[in-house]
Amino acid sequence: MDHGGSAEAYDQTEVPPRPPVRRRGSPDRVFKLVAAIAAAGLVGFVVFVIVRGPSQPAGPSSAALQVPPPPVLRTGTTAPAFSLPALGGGTPVSLSMYRGRPVIVNFFASWCPDCKAELAAFAALADRTAGRVDVIGVDANDNDGAAARTLLSEAKATYPVGLDPDAKVATSYLINALPVTYFLDRRGRVVHVAFGTQTPASLAKWADILTRSSAGAGGPS
Fold first, then answer.
1. Which among 29, 60, 101, 128 is least surrounded, fewest beta carbons within 10 Å?
2. Is the pLDDT of residue 17 over 90?
């Protein structure tokens, strides 16, 4: 047996090449793909937050958090009568003295900044409506009569002011904060109650309403 020839024939036999291995992707390509997906997700989240607006904290609804209105004498109720020492002395300030004409009763105090801001408007109104609608001040829960006189003088207010240092009259009108203004018709009945600093326009509006209602009701009863 000629092993040399057989070896030559074996050596000349071609071995078929293996097919190349197909790589699914290099580590760099995989990392870039993951980074792109993460970036797209981040952009989407930012857009969602911007469109949605600021998140609202969990808790009771706004309706449940609404503060109830302060207590007042109801419209149509006869205002409690009172007679108070006059600020600066003189004739006591009594509500009964004004029966037959509409009256505006302003509860204030010298220590109340919002009260100070409206005194000039009341002074102007009292001058404008003299003989038609009366204005009364009640200095409530205030022991500094000198400070109250100074404020009224600066506001050029000359209408009557009664002293209510123990807030007994204010309490009978259900007042628990200042300033508060009651608008009474010629029979002493509550027409309107206003809280906080009053503007000249608001006072003029209600003074005109009181004037019209008084003119259409005939004489005093």
1. 60
2. no
